[in-house]
Amino acid sequence: MRVGCHAVRTVARVSAAGEITAAQRIMLVHAHPDDETIGTGATMARYAAAGAHVTLVTCTLGEEGEIHVPELTGLAAGAADQLGGYRIAELDAACAALGVTDHRFLGGAGRFRDSGMMGLPTNDHPRAFWQADLDVAAGLLLDVIREVRPQVLVTYDPNGLYGHPDHIQAHRVAMRAHQLAGDLAPAKVYWTAVPRSALAAGMEAFARSSDNPFAGIDNVDDLPFGCPDSEIAARIDAEKFAEAKLAAIRVHATQIPPTSWLYSLAGDPTGQSLGVEHYRLAMGEKGPGNGPNGWEEDLFAGLDVAMTSPAGA
Predict the structure, then answer these.
(1) Molecular function terms in GO for this entry (predicted)?
(2) How many domains does the chain have?
(3) Is residue 121 part of a domain?
(4) Helices 242-251, 83-98: crossing angle, 10 deg rounding
(5) How confident is the model over 108-161, as pLDDT tens digits?
(6) Where would I find the beta strands (DSSP E) of the chain?
(7) Is residue 132 part of a domain?
(8) Strand pairing partners for 104?
């Protein structure tokens, strides 16, 4: 059944014994703090508000991230190396803005370290997520799957959307955990995606912007990401939660500067609002969809799962 959007935040229901009782359960596996907000924030907020149990698993603390707050540059990996700890607080605040109450770090905070961009010496750090034993990391995620029993799992595509080693590893770990889960495996697995039509619209809209994320690129096919519209399975319209996503973006201040193109997108110059997110269906049966592309409007579409009612309804 289709999930409606509720403006009132609800808390996912848990029994006195600690058992998760929400009918709809969705798990998202992301690489670093802020990835959850940029790629899936509106989706998370929509389902959390509708009473679904939303579980976010973040694989690293993001220790190698850039720092866009001048007074915090001393936290950098090459200095005090405390950025990861600071980003825990940013992630907590982002989850609060999105209404997400169930967040875990894979294996616990600090078990795996941010690997940095592909090809850097940080890839070889002994705790780098890129170096993690696949079955060990997948086993840790499997423990969460067994506890939560989500019907829907969301992660990245095999290229990690744009080639970051931690995104690629998050994909591998999530897919391996799904394989190991057997009868408890989520019925549907989605990969985050950006339709090429949206990228083309963005390139045109930002062409004259001082903060053009597409600067130097003339053809959408030259971008390191982008999915043919024909491969998109779901379009989640969570426009009512665009402000919640924007609030979560703001609290990831070390990673997202005030001049970021994301704030321009909040003004909707491309026709693709912050509140609209797209997905490819990697595993499971596609449910009914609408519109000219037949895209699903609900990640639970086609599943025999009743809509979860808001607490107190």
Answers:
(1) N-acetylglucosaminylinositol deacetylase activity
(2) 1
(3) yes
(4) 160
(5) 999 999 999 999 999 999 999 999 999 999 999 999 999 999 999 999 999 999
(6) 25-30, 53-58, 102-105, 152-155, 188-193, 234-237, 276-283
(7) yes
(8) 57
Give the CATH number, domain containing residue 40: 3.40.50.10320
Q: Is 167 annotated as a binding residue?
A: yes
Domain range for 239 is 25-196+228-283
Nearest to 92 by CA among 275, 294, 251, 296: 251
114 is in an annotated binding site: no
**Tokens 């750090």 sit at which residue?**
125
Residue among 136, 102, 112, 26 at smallest CA distance from 61: 112
- Token digits for 304? 């025999």
Q: 35: annotated binding-site residue?
A: yes
Distance CA 190, CA 152 (A): 8
Establish if 301 belongs to a structural domain: no
Tell me the C-alpha distance between 192 and 227, whole Å. 10
Q: What is the pLDDT of residues 48-89, one digit of tens each?
A: 999 999 999 999 999 999 999 999 999 999 999 999 999 999
> How many Å apart are CA 25 and CA 4, to the nearest integer?
15
Decide if 214 is inside a domain: no
**pLDDT for 211-261, tens place per residue?**
555 556 666 565 667 888 999 999 999 999 999 999 999 999 999 999 887
